[in-house]
Amino acid sequence: MFDSLSDRLGAVVGKLRNRGRLSEADVDEILAEIRTALLEADVNVAVVRNVLARIREQSVGEAMSKVLDPAQQVVKTVQAELIALLGGETLKITYASQPPTVVLMAGLQGSGKTTSAAKLAAWFKKQGRQPMLVGADLQRPAAVEQLRVLGQQIGVPVFSAPGDPVETARLGLEEARRLGRNVLIVDTAGRLAIDEEMMEQVRRISETVMPRYTFLVVDAMTGQDAVTVAEAFNNTLAIDGVILSKLDGDARGGAALSVKEVIGKPIAFAATGEKLDAFEQFHPDRMAGRILGMGDMLSLIEQAEQVFEKEEAEKAAKKLVDGKFTLDDFLDQLQQLKKMGPLQNVLGMLPGVGAQLKGAEVSDDQVKRTEAIIRSMTPAERENPQIINGSRRTRIANGSGTQVQDVNRLVKQFAEMQKMMKQFGGRLPSR
Amino acid sequence: MNDLWLYVAIAATIALGGGVVIARRSRHDMPSAPVAPPTPPTPVAAPSAPAAVETPPAAVSTPPSFRDRLSRARGVFASATTGVLRRSAIDQSTWDELEEAMLRADLGVKVTTALLDGLRARVKQREIADPTGLIHALRSEMTGRLADVDRTLAFDLARGTPNIWMMVGVNGAGKTTSLAKIAAQQMALGRSVLMAAGDTFRAAAGEQLETWATRTGAAIVRGAEGADPSSVVFDGVQSAAARNIDLVLADTAGRLQTNTNLMDELRKVRRVAEKAAGVVTEVLLVIDATTGQNGLVQAKQFTEATQVTGVVLTKLDGSAKGGIVFAIETELGIPVKLVGLGETVADLAPFHPEEFVDALFDE
Question: What gap in Å lies between CA A323 and CA B180, rounded to an integer?
Fold first, then answer.
């Protein structure tokens, strides 16, 4: 696994801890770490060079924040730079005045076009459109069959005809008009960007169906070659945006950033899971954190700093690590946390947690219930939940208007959390 | 269970709040490091659909020269070499140009740094005197990194009948296509082949393999969509044993290495395959040449789960250089056995390190 950038920077940051300003040499050292992180995330070499030049300009001599370490300030600059590079805004999809709105899918073999086509159809359906799929990949055995099965799963009609892919696409467009479908998604065969014959074929498909959007499907695991491929497809087809597939793995997806920088077209969608609804419009800010391997830690740190009482937080963290964290402390911290905004958002910023929570509802009701249960406990019980026996349990449940099972669950999960935090304590800085 | 996340996350946030403070105070009295919160495993997808290009296999003929096929759009080192040789001495730009070429070929920071550090030392010791010598040394060091190992596919009926070769890899790497080409080649060698359609997840994966079985004349065993892949492979091996078939090629669904459940499933496929009458002699990891640094992680994880015996590097006929294999071979010692140089059966060719490296330097 790659070390996260925060790990990498650890050593540098430690050395620089007494500096209010960074010298050019310090910045060099930090930038070298950032360079490695970006390269290991598959950001294109040329793009890395440009980004680093811009960051250096902003970092040398700048008065560093009093709150954060100077080195972290540089990291913050990096993140801002990456977000700017990825394109500040999510692509807004508009529709043709003369339906259907045609979308053409293109890309290398195995990049995930067919699955992405089906996911995109499901997305349009959710927007209240009536999509139709055209299977114009007549190359790979059973590709059309695959599209049909997927179409069935999402309840979207699939058209295909054997023979010539250009003709198939044309017939598909006619069929969509006849059936009154207002979005048409054309899946094409995978092709190498240097295969002139195949590139000519997809250009002819494009001419025939006149797509409103041409999306290039790019595998998140792609390395340095992503840029070459994107340029080639863009020259032939005039790409409108990129669909980033397989983003649910542990690839950092630096290719995405490079493509945006080189062809100047935004990343429109990202596939984040195997399910056909695991597909969403792309958010540049989240991607920046991912490329750096640090989630959205920085904004979280910022918010935490604004809200948490320093002394209190320090005490709580120490207790946690020492295993002396009680339900009382938990209640206190919960109050602090609530000040940071809706819980779901706060948790979403923790690396890795965001994705987990997509399926799990974290409602403020749950928080309220938890608070009520703790408040119904005596100080002794909060100090040492192990003394909670049957009759205490019933009393607490009655007092908080919850069920005995709820009380049990809280006590059990609190114990588990303590255990987990003790392990995590080993990774905390300086104890 | 849902609530548990709440607590973990809250605890993490608390620790974070505290951590920030501790880290700040540490400027004065403690060593400091950025805060690392616990990162719960990201839930990952089961396979989404790969799409591999396939055309009807041509009859097996003499494989095209490895070098000829590679040289198309190769030469990532060509301009660097030209630049380096234009100068009479080795200077900073020399190193910069070489480094950039190596990174662009997806060699990765670690391999690149190691190679360049070695060369710098040799220049310092006057072992390498001029740009020409440097380029020559780089070529031979790169070739040397791809160690002289056995790259033949292990087939030995004395070890058990049938032999089983498993195909594993992430989604869209080209497992099914590679399997079909291997089948055609092995049948041309006079071996009888059975395909076990262990990808029971992706829509129409079974149909795809069936098409290939018909075209190549190989036997095939399929399960229902969604069936347990281990049982499909087991049935395939049993069926091959009963019919005296030499070789079972077991396809598996593409999976991302971060998906623990699916990696466990793969472990089970390998285990169960040997419970039947045969013996697993090859586990081939299929990697797409366009893959970047994640390829090393893939190789590590798949090896951990299934003891990978070789790599099949596909789609090397595109513009991607496949440089990640340097890291895979040196760090994990897994040899590249086959490379995909095109769409015909003959285009799946044995790997030659020297020609592979030479092609990178071609003009």
Answer: 57
Which of B:96-155 have CB within 8 Å of A? 100, 103-106, 108-109
Backbone angles phi, psi at A101, to 5 degrees: -80, 115
Q: Residues with Cβ < 8 Å from B356, sequence gap 6 or more?
A: B66, B70, B146, B322, B339
User: Would strands B348-350 and B336-340 be described as parallel, antiparallel, or unpaired?
Assistant: antiparallel
* Disruptive mutation site among B5, B13, B116 for chain A (greatest number of A CBs within 10 Å): B13
Domain termination residue (choose one: B94, B116, B145): B145
For residue A311, what are the contacts with CB-CB under 8 A and spacing of at least 6? B21
A139 in contact with B, Cβ within 8 Å: yes
> Tell me, what's the pLDDT at A24?
75
B199 and B243 housed in the same domain: yes
Amino acid at B218: A
Q: Where are the alpha helices (DSSP H) in chain B?
A: 2-29, 66-70, 78-86, 92-104, 109-124, 131-145, 175-188, 205-216, 229-242, 260-275, 294-306, 324-332, 353-361
Q: Which of A36, A114, A317 sits opposite B18 (nearest CB)?
A: A317
- A85-89, A94-98, A370-374, B270-274: segment of lowest average pLDDT: A85-89
Give the phi and the psi of residue B198 in degrees, each rounded to 5: -80, -5
In a domain, residue B265? The reply is yes
B318, B290 Cβ separation under 8 angstroms: yes
Kindly state whether residues B178 and B314 are assigned to the same domain: yes
Question: Which residue in the set B42, B55, B207 is minimally distant from A355, CB to CB?
Answer: B42
Say if B66 falls within a structural domain.
no
Distances from the Cα of A44 to the Cα of A49, A200, A220, A259, angstroms:
9, 27, 13, 9
Q: What is the pLDDT of residues B280-308, one digit of tens each?
A: 999 999 999 999 999 999 999 999 999 99
> How many contacts, defined by CB atoms under 8 Å, are there between A and B?
376
The interface predicted TM-score of the complex, written ipTM, equals 0.78
B283: Cα within 13 Å, side-chain hemisphere: 22
Does one domain contain both B141 and B170? Answer: no
Whether residue A429 and residue B37 make contact (CB cut-off 8 A), yes or no, is no
State the residue range of the domain holding B22.
1-40
Tell me the pLDDT band of A409, cut-offs 50, 70 and 90: confident
CATH number of the domain at A297-425, out of 2.40.50.100, 1.10.260.30, 3.10.129.10, 3.40.50.1100?
A: 1.10.260.30
Separation of alpha carbons B199 and A231, rounded Å: 34
**Considering all CA atoms of chain A, what is the largest pairwise distance in Å, rounded to the nearest integer?**
79
Where are the domains positioned within chain A?
5-86, 101-283, 297-425
The distance of B202 to chain A (nearest Cα, Å) reads: 8
Does domain A101-283 match CATH 3.40.309.10? no
Looking at the fold, whether B209 and B306 belong to one and the same domain comes out as yes
Question: What local confidence, expressed as pLDDT, does residue B318 receive?
Answer: 87
> Based on the domain organization, do B203 and B130 belong to the same domain?
no
CATH class, A5-86 region: mainly alpha
Number of domains in chain B: 3
